[in-house]
Amino acid sequence: MTLTTKLLGSKAVAALTAPHGVDRYLEMFNPMWAATEVRARVVDIHRENPGAEGSAPVATLTLQPTSTWRGHRAGQYVQVGVELPGSARRLTRCFSISSAASLPGERFTLTIRANDEGQVSTFLVNSAQVGQMLHLSQADGKFTIHESAATPTNNHLVMISGGSGITPVMAQIRTLLRDGYDGRANRKVTFIHYARSEADQIFADELAEIAAGDNHVDVHLRYGDATFSEFELRRLVPDFKNTDTWACGPGGLIELVRDAFGEENPRLRVEFFKPPTVSTGSATGAVSFVKAGATAENTGATLLEQAEALGLTPEFGCRMGICFSCVKTKTDGTVRNVLTGEESSLPDEEIRICVSSPVGDCSVDL
Amino acid sequence: MTITDIKPRNTKPATKKRATVRASDPKNPNLTPEQLDAFGDELDDLRQRVLGKLGKEDADYIRMIVKRQQQFEIAGRALFYLPPAWPLAVAALSVSKILENMEIGHNVMHGQYDWMGDPKLNSRIYDWDTMAPGENWRYGHNYIHHTYTNILGKDRDIGYGILRMDEDQKWRPYYLGNPIYALLLMLLFEEGVAVHDLEVDRIMAGERTWEETKKVGKPILRKVGKQTLKDYVLFPLLTGPFFLSTLAGNAVANVVRNIWTFNIIFCGHFPAGVATFTEEECENESRGHWYYRQLLGSANITGGKLFHIMSGNLSHQIEHHLFPDIPARRYPELSVEVQALCEKYGIEYNTGGLTHQLWTVAKKIVRLSFPTGTAKPQPAPVATSDETLAA
Q1: What pLDDT digit, counting tens, does each position of B30-52 carry?
Q2: Domains defined along chain A, listed by start
Q3: Cis omega (within 30 of 0) on the bond before A19?
Q4: Residue A16 to residue B230, Cβ atoms within 8 A
Q5: In sequence order, what are the residues at sequence separation of 6 or more whose Cβ sits closer than 8 angstroms to the Cβ of residue B9?
Q6: What angle do CA A295, A298, A304 make, to 5 degrees?
Q7: Inter-chain contact A18–B230, Cβ cutoff 8 Å?
Q8: What is the ipTM metric for this complex?
Q9: What pLDDT, in 10s, does the model give residues A181-214?
């Protein structure tokens, strides 16, 4: 941290600009000046799968963050806020960081697939230009590794990913290799990845290089209909249930991996794009959205999805319980957190509607 | 249904001229529930049309205002280093504070720009450059005042618990000081707004527990401390030898802002003709009646574009009360259609020049400092009792 950053972030300067943040003034002079906020300028955009016909384009964006960026650990994600041209509305989404662990103020990369419904990902991949400013959070997330060249363990590590879920895993492997993992240390890494097709495989050249290198990293790429099976995993890693494993991908893949490892296996860390769908069998009661005056039978889906099904357009961000953009007040009833299964019946409670599903009758101030 | 079907609500002539107007006054139309529904639907449509138009223009506007405000602020703070420029410094800082409190703070905290998704312009995050903590204000103003606008006994903004601004507030000898309290409130408006949510009158009456008071009071103390530190210690210290002149300049800028906001706000709610409602009249209220109440409960001030910006467009208090969460820069265009609707439904659209509106406010403050005596509340179709009114 430079002296200027330290000074600008000090209590004395904050007292002068109170009740506003120092950044409200700094940004006026230069978008790359910041005291506490994190922003970044896009300095490079690289298309990852130019040849893949018929599948969504993927691009890697290199970001130069402001000096307030605290760095990231491999496997973490960052919230990216961007004002889409024309609408003036800032949308915030979460993206995993694809580059190796960074130090404060260092550049890092995001590798993003342009989803059809994803306005932010589509914009970043297809329309963003070098020079585009982005609003960031600090890196966050516990999908991280503790191993490094400096930790003299010889644990076997297993990485399993599907589709775009390769990004945090890639960050982890890149970090291990950058920091000195090699064939001599006998520290084995098994990496299994599922992609739609060979043409759609991102990081293909780098993966081939890793596979060929003398580094003790085994790369297994599976395409098309090949889905995850416990049988195959056992063949590659016989003692997988006692092996530290990181899995990232779509909900379906994660459910299969979870089944294979058994409930609550502490060796398995997972991260998925969308929260798992809640069983709709036991849903009862009615859901009412007070401000909109809309009521419907509870389908068991998250409140956000139920509101959208009724044609409402509540604000949302990450849709996975991270960014708190969708916080609303539940005026009555019980909700279950779909991530933790925790139920809560407090009145006038602030809830994240993207990860809360009603249990019986429920009213939300929306 | 055409407007000719609307019959006056109360054909009985008023027995005595009241100093303040009740909604049941014969000058106001006696709209049937169906007419109120139709009226509400038309305003809902208008609201949807404008919400659909919000976009880059509005975002650019508010960012431009923020930028100008910051430029005035920086200029003001810097000019204190140049003693001969003292009046200029005070003027710049006053303009900055007025812009920040009104067109930015008040409007942002109403959620007018929440749709932009910018945390710096978000109603739940924003706090303004005045002693009143945003959090308290959002409750007392956004919720209580804007929901229960001009309902006697519910809207604490009728007289703010200090002044007698309506005939139905029972006269006490205390109110002989009405004009003096008003003058003090004007000069100390910032402090007044800050302690408003303490509901001092209710603490005195023993209606509020110490726990409640502590909960509301703590953030006030913290915010008052921060504002005092900034304007009366740190910035004066930074100008070194000019400590006193900077201190005085900051104080004057704060008072200029106080006087200006007080006047705009009083002209928005208390000119002659603005009506109050009883709780009974608002029981199980329809959306149409809510709109109707907002309309009768506020007044506009005419003026030029700069005047509207400097008043945070609260010179369009009527439109603000109808659509509190629509960006205020849209109020002038909305007012054209609202006036047309008023004409159609026979509702008075209360507007006038600043001096005219101020004059009627001043008259009301003085008149109500004396007992208003025997004036009987006019019997509305929904019967009300004196006890509830005095509450």
Answers
A1: 889 999 999 999 999 999 899 88
A2: 1-36 (no CATH), 38-136 (2.40.30.10), 157-272 (3.40.50.80), 286-365 (3.10.20.30)
A3: yes
A4: yes
A5: B24, B26, B28, B29, B30, B380, B381
A6: 80
A7: yes
A8: 0.82
A9: 777 777 889 999 999 888 888 899 999 999 998 8
